[in-house]
Amino acid sequence: MAANNPFIRLAVIATTFIIAMVYGFSAHTSHISHMPANAEHLVYTSAFPAKMDLSTPLVSGISVGRYNAKREYSPELARIYSRYLANDMTIGALCPNGHTIHDGSSITEDDINEAISFASQQIQLYENANQQYLAIDPRGLNFSAYIFGALLQARFNEFITQYLTSKKCINKYNTAAILPTIRIPKNTNLNQEYCNIDKSESNDIHCDPNYKYRLMNGRCNNLAFPNWGSSFHCHRRLLPPDYSDGINQPRVSITGAPLPSPHILVPDPNLSGMNMAWGQFMVHDNFRTIQNLGLAINCCLIPNATVHPECVPITNFPQDEATASFNNQQCINTVRSIACNTCSLGPRDQLNVATQVLCVAHWI
């Protein structure tokens, strides 16, 4: 067996070590091309210097939260980002009769208080759904309390966003461009168990330039931007997300219909998991977006009277699908990636728990 041959295993380890060293040294440069998608929050909560001017517009004249595309990227990428937000699909909105599209500027303190009250009720229902699944599968109790707390904070902010976008008929464009700039008034009675979103992220990170190694969580790899490439931060986006509701619901087609089943798009029965194994090894060493509650949520329970809010099971198999024919499998358990706590309103981001350095840690 080749897998048990010590010489082959030694050759693989040596090759991997060389690749890791090359990528590790290149990661010390500060050029953006060496920064992968999990570098510090891109779109709505970038941890830039505290004195960053939030009013500086993008190339097209809009400001997107604390993220400044003109500062962070080339003018070409800034224009792409701005054009993407300005298309008909993000600007248009279907408002109830008698309502008009708002840009978020008309949101009052009373609106915020109502939204927080709504979010408090919804987050309790969300936690109840988690407890139902934990009662069935206690493996979820091993889920990181730190990550789970951040998830609840993120979901709380999403519920506030949902309420405001519904009440004010805010379209996708303004959900992505304007809502992240809104700060909760300091006198609002916000439950401190969750995120105090009137405060921006702290940038008080001290790195020793003479220290031989980066920190264990990947910080200080880049002295100018010490959070770049560190773990437990939001994935960086080159374009805003295209959620069907502009907040967190999975994308749909331009007609509003569900997208085709992944099994229809990838029908080749001759391809096995080995077809993507090497790519997965590389990707998982840099990006690790975990699922809600780990393995505790089973979206294919039969009967499944209570479906978890994060469930998106694959059920629409083709009639000749080999998996269904030979294994009688009618459902693939698919749980959404955990939401990243951006401490701001707006669309959902995803959490990356890996560092950006190719260090082969995921292989061990």
Could you describe the 3D structure shown?
The protein is mainly alpha-helical. It has one domain. The chain has helices at residues 6-26, 69-72, 75-85, 88-91, 109-136, 145-168, 172-177, 262-265, 277-286, 322-327; strands at 233-234, 339-340, 349-352. It has a 3-stranded antiparallel sheet. A hairpin with an 8-residue loop joins strand 2 and strand 3. The longest helix is centred in the middle third of the chain and has 28 residues, at 109-136. The protein starts with 5 loop residues before the first helix and ends in a 12-residue tail after the last strand. The model is unreliable at 17-73, 187-194 and 196-202 (pLDDT under 50). Keywords: Membrane, Oxidoreductase, Peroxidase, Transmembrane, Transmembrane helix. Pfam families: An_peroxidase. One of its GO terms (molecular function) is peroxidase activity.
Q: Quick check: average pLDDT?
A: 68
Question: How would you spell out the order of helices and strands?
Answer: HHHHHHHEHHHEE
Spatial order of the strands in the main sheet?
1-3-2
The best one-word shape is globular
Q: Radius of gyration, rounded?
A: 22 Å
The number of helices is 10
Strand content: under 5%
Q: What's the number of extended β-strand segments? A: 3
Give the end-to-end Cα distance, rounded to a whole number of Å. 21 Å
The main β sheet shows up as: 3 strands, antiparallel
* Count of structural domains: 1
Spans where pLDDT lies below 50 across 5 or more residues? 17-73, 187-194, 196-202
Residues in helices, as a percent range: 25-40%
Structural class: mainly alpha
Keywords: Membrane, Oxidoreductase, Peroxidase, Transmembrane, Transmembrane helix
Transmembrane segments: 7-26
GO molecular function: heme binding; peroxidase activity
